[in-house]
Amino acid sequence: MNQKGLSEKEVLALLNNARLKDTSYSKVLSAMCTRPHPIAVKAHMQFIESNLGDFGLFPGTKELEEKVIKLMGELFCDQNACGYITTGGTESNIQALRTARNLCNKQHPNIVVPSSAHFSFDKIADILGIEVRKAGLDGEFKVDPSLMEKLIDDNTIALVGIAGSTEFGQIDPIDKLASLALSHDIFLHIDAAFGGFVIPFLDKKYEFDFSIRGVTSITADPHKMGMSTIPAGGLLFRDEACLLPLQVDTPYLTIRKQHSLTGTRSGAAVAGAYAVMMHLGMEGYKKIVDRCMGMTYRLVEGAKDLDIRPFIDPVMNIVALDVPELEKVRKKLREKGWFTSVTRNPRAMRLVIMPHLNEGIIELFISDLRDCLRS
Ligand SMILES: *Cc1c(COP(=O)(O)O)cnc(C)c1O
What is the span of the domain harbouring residue 361? Predict the structure, then answer.
């Protein structure tokens, strides 16, 4: 650190230089985050000082958090659901399985997840000391419930279903997983980190939430398709007792107990999430999802004209395309400024069609893809 501080102007110049190296979202088809809605940014700035780790000092922000949980509970068909706003899907998944582990009290606990599960479950295995068993998928990249059942034993404490898989945007047969969970009397956690703010707004209806008996907890991220600012994840439990195993005593704060994984935590992101949910409403989110789905269908149609097929017909705004010479094509696209990503198995070009994109950009991508395939 310098002995003497720099002027504000000098510091802002340094920041500008750094910011110029960042990518603007305009040609990013690889990200699950997007430009937050302007009202979320405003709310975030207004609550920038607020710390929910010590909410006795910030009762107004705490009320907003309770309201966001209520709004999300309604969205997921249980207005009495409880929970809190986390830093994202990873924290929500960790905390959901931590609850399951602490309530089940097994010496060598395991959980069964789809092999399509997000890499946060590898962190869970390490942090929580839980064995993570991965069940195979069917031809449409949904987990196969019969393969899941084979992996269940006396030490299994929870099943995980994915509603909106990171790579294929697929939804597992949650009703079948719920029957399994109920018959074995174990937890069923739904990872809807991405899909939580997509599935309720699709034209086609899917049951994936608390409307299904047996679903015990849900992860859904406001900072992905919820259009909110980072860091905002949501963790919801059907049963309030599920929060208890997460509580620790906090002797030197204005509050007596805390159930979040982090200590100090952003009230700004909670205000952002509240603002955007109140502002958009169900209709606003539906419009955003409709627009993303329209662009997704157009992209798939454009790819098919180039003889490139998606591995599944799009369920949500994520597509995996079977592109020949994948790495070569991706490199060429990168030279044209595009950010694409890949799936693991099978390897495919993975594209996420987020609200920061527009129809013109999709046409440009299709035409650049055509050029990259030819050259
Ligand atoms: C993005 C994602 C996560 C992780 O969320 P973070 O906010 O990045 O921690 C977990 N599960 C699924 C299905 C996701 O898509």
Answer: 8-36+283-374
Nearest CA-CA partner of 109 in 129, 80, 85: 129
Please give the average per-residue pLDDT across 261-288, as a whole number: 97
pLDDT tens for 5-56 read 999 999 999 999 999 999 999 999 999 999 999 999 999 999 999 999 999 9
Q: Which two tokens stand for residue 339?
A: 């950010």
pLDDT of residue 254: 86
Q: What is the tens place of the pLDDT at every residue in 215-242?
A: 999 999 999 999 999 999 999 999 999 9
Q: How many domains does the chain have?
A: 2
* DSSP-assigned letter for residue 108: S
* Lowest mean pLDDT segment, chosen from 148-157, 246-255, 288-297: 246-255
- Residues having CB closer than 6 A to ligand 1 are 32, 88-90, 93, 118, 120, 162, 166, 191, 193-194, 221, 233
CA of 23 to the centre of ligand 1 (A): 21
Mutate to test the pocket of ligand 1, among 33, 94, 95, 120 (most ligand atoms within 8 A of CB): 120
| 115 CA from centroid of ligand 1 (Å) | 15
> Do residue 15 and residue 110 come from a single domain?
no
**Positive or negative, the Cα torsion across 26, 162, 95, 50?**
positive
CB 142 within 8 A of CB 136: no
Among the three residues 242, 258, 278, which one is the final residue of a domain in this structure?
278
> 334 and 292 share a domain?
yes
Report whether 157 contacts 186 (CB < 8 A).
Answer: yes
CATH (domain of 27) = 3.90.1150.10
> With bands split at pLDDT 50, 70 and 90, how would you rate the model's confidence at 266?
very high
Structure tokens, 13: 């110049």
Could you report the per-residue pLDDT of 15-27, keeping only the tens digit for each? 999 999 999 999 9
Residue nearest to atom 10 of ligand 1 (CA): 89
What separation in Å is there between the alpha carbon of 314 and the centre of ligand 1? Answer: 19
- Output the pTM of the full model: 0.97
Helix, strand, coil percentages in the chain from 3-state DSSP, rounded to 5: 45, 15, 40
